[in-house]
Amino acid sequence: MIIFGAADETQVVVAPPLARGGVRTEPRWVRVAITTFAMTFLSVFVVLPLILVFTTALSKGVSAYFDALTGSETRAAILLTLAAAAVSVTLNLFFGVIAAWAIAKFDFRGKTLLITLIDLPFSVSPVISGLVFVLLFGAQGFFGTWLLAHDVQILFATPAIVLATTFVTFPFVARELIPLMQEQGTQEEEAAISLGASGLRTFLRVTLPNIKWGVLYGVLLCNARAMGEFGAVSVVSGHIRGETNTMPLLVEILYNEYQLVAAFAVASLLAFLALVTLVAKTVLESQIVEGSSESDN
Prior knowledge:
The chain is an all-alpha fold and 297 residues long. The protein has helices spanning 28-57, 62-69, 72-105, 111-123, 126-137, 144-149, 158-169, 171-184, 187-194, 199-228, 231-237, 247-256, 260-296; strands at 2-5, 10-13. A hairpin with a 4-residue loop joins strand 1 and strand 2. The protein is globular, with a radius of gyration of 26 Å.
């Protein structure tokens, strides 16, 4: 219903009810064509490759599949991938929460620069990121002479893999929390501080409960990116078999050696983790929407 008011009269115009599911202006055949195109595109470019990964991995039977996953190189790659993801996610969680808190809740000089630096890994190729670490920690790099003198191995070892993974994934938590915390404002924190709560207590009892689903969502995306990282890790790892190969790197090596079952077995594990991440992402998105609607009410 729309009401138009004037100085001496009021007009009431009743708008027609919306069609179920929203306003529909396109004819039925257009909607069917668009839906069919979208489903076909997703089936060819998303669903079909996933099916081929699992069918190829199981092409020689379940026993060959599990033999490929339980090999020494595969176990080492899985453990290295999980370790690098765990460390990088922990570091990015700590950094992301602090950076988002500072950007969303305070005004300070250099705020725009900090936001730009957070977005930097999104605009730089992962291969370039890996080369930067080579220039820093390689034998001829900026810190190379000092590292050699003190017998510290960073490049072509686990520390370089962790550093590269952390660099390419650190925007995810911060970028998820910044708009969420900006939308919530500072009223609740100001009220808590006015009642005598300390800054840390205000964060733990007021800020953190309001952003918990956003934190989990950012951690989830960060972890998925960390486990699937290839470019930067490929540059700094050295491809030492059984030592510095993560799961994506091992897939490439096995495929180049024509060990297709083993390669697709490891790839299927990554695909399975991606599907689990997708389900968890959907659940967290629903929780975020519900939390936003409850806060609005």
